[in-house]
Amino acid sequence: xxxxxxxxxxxxxxxxxxxxxxxxxxxxxxxxxxxLEPGAHDFLRYLMxxxxxxxxxxxxxxxxxxxxxxxxxxxxxxxxxxxxxRYDQAFAAVEEAGLPAIHTDCYICDSEMDNSYGKRSYxxxxxxxxxxxxxxVIGTAEMAAAGKIQPDQVGTRVGFKDRLRQVExxxxxDKGDFVKSAxxxxxxxxxxxxxxxxxxxxxxxxFGGLNTMYSVYKTLCDRDYQVTRYGEGRDTxxxxxxxxxxxxxxxxxxxxxxxxxxxxxxxxxxxxxxxIEERASDEYFALxxxxxxxxxxxxxxxxxxxxxxxxxxAQSQGQLNLTKPSAEPSEDMxxxxxxxxxxxxxxxxxxxxxxxAADFDS
Length: 362
What we know:
Elements: E1 9-10, H1 12-22, E2 41-46, E3 54-63, E4 80-84, H2 107-110, E5 124-138, H3 141-145, E6 157-162, E7 164-170, E8 188-194, E9 196-201, H4 203-217, E10 223-230, E11 237-245, H5 257-266, H6 272-278, H7 282-288, H8 313-317, H9 331-341, E12 358-359
């Protein structure tokens, strides 16, 4: 994670309150976001507990301006993009500390832009966490012969393992410096890594259920979850089914260190604070939204993209600091969740009952 002390609010309790008040219910690596098609499901292990969630106010579906002349011919120009509202409280002045505002304008707000739905693009609360995608492990005869599972578990789900992915990253030498070609561009190499994703969703249809589960379990990181998407567009809803706990895979255990290492290795792609700040940066707004500003050049002297991570004024001044979570889910919400969790048979018929929680990652 970024070492910057952030003023972005943190935690699911404050996220709940924020949602209510919002009216919405080296070379930089791009983050991988968690996505599901309508009717689809996937398995996740959350890597940040509720108090660690980031909360920000976002503009969603904002139409983009004309494509820059130097935009790569083989890369599609997006018709709309999300953006962090530059009037978010995280960027406001801190008078008692003598710190100025980081941003004093927001082109989207000031020009009263409409979103892709044809309505005013007001900023709404969005919440952020990290997770790793997980794959089911089905028992085999070989596993039973090796004593890893019982014979009657062959053909059934016996646990999960981390999903892996291949990515192209800038190559580094033994000293940790980027390797460059003769023309100054970065040399890329293919590596295998754990499939860590950024989850960025509203409280109402995604994080609300998780927030209540945290109140019941006191942690979200000691088990896997099946996440299913229902509906689409503004009718989208997500349902979480918690699976059995894994005492040997949770924060503080030896196995958990693999996630701490993966987050560090993936750098910008797993740095939520940096992702939120970049989407409010002068460069980002000039590239995608503000026609009065010239889009930044696609490369700099190091042959890296101009949208690469740079130290923000907030970071250089040590200006950002955390706000404290403030509210708890209601007792009725917690009681209802406890009842549902104690009766997994009440889950939809297409959702399997919790089973096979063992971690089979190597």
